[in-house]
Specification:
By secondary structure, the protein is mostly beta strands. The chain is built from two helices and 14 strands. The strands form four sheets. The chain has a six-stranded mixed β-sheet, covered by helices on one side. The chain has a three-stranded antiparallel β-sheet with strand order 9-10-11.
Length: 153
């Protein structure tokens, strides 16, 4: 039986078959997206997804309520307040939006990005920049201040 473990309440679940990760479910505009083996299916409601895919949802999620604003995502620094923080399992990136209803994602932390054949250090770039260019990261600290400099001249 495939079980869905909630990562972000009502927004993101990881699908597991025993101890093996087999996919994920994301809340998207207009419904839900089921991704298994790099194939995606969309459903209007969570109930439809449960019935058609035969997935058992585990609703036990620990909810931590705090009044302080988030300024990091999974230990990586960000610029500004964090909304919709997620960990992209495929890209292995800490992602977030800067506004609650935004569709533009940023990657938390420091990155070395190859732009026009030169390596540049960038703090919290947009996800689309990372998807279109070669990069290293994320780093928790500015990589120009450590031993990585010798590789990026």
């Amino acid at each position: 039986m495939i079980k869905a473990k909630p990562i972000v309440k009502n927004k993101f679940w990881i699908l597991r078959d025993g101890n093996r990760k087999v996919g994920e479910v994301n809340a998207i505009q207009g419904g839900f997206s089921l991704t298994v083996n790099n194939k995606e299916a969309r459903f209007k409601t969570l109930t439809t997804l449960k019935n058609r895919a035969g997935i058992e949802f585990d609703d036990s999620i620990k909810v931590v309520t705090t009044k302080k604003k988030l300024t990091d995502v999974h230990g990586y620094a960000t610029s500004g307040t964090v909304f919709n923080a997620v960990w992209d399992v495929r890209l292995k990136l800490p992602l977030y939006t800067k506004k609650e209803k935004s569709k533009s994602y940023f990657a938390a932390g420091w990155y070395k990005i190859k732009l026009k054949n030169r390596w540049k250090t960038v703090f919290c770039p947009k996800l689309i920049i990372l998807e279109r260019n070669e990069y290293l990261g994320p780093f928790k600290h500015d990589p120009t201040e450590n031993q990585f400099n010798q590789f990026f001249k």
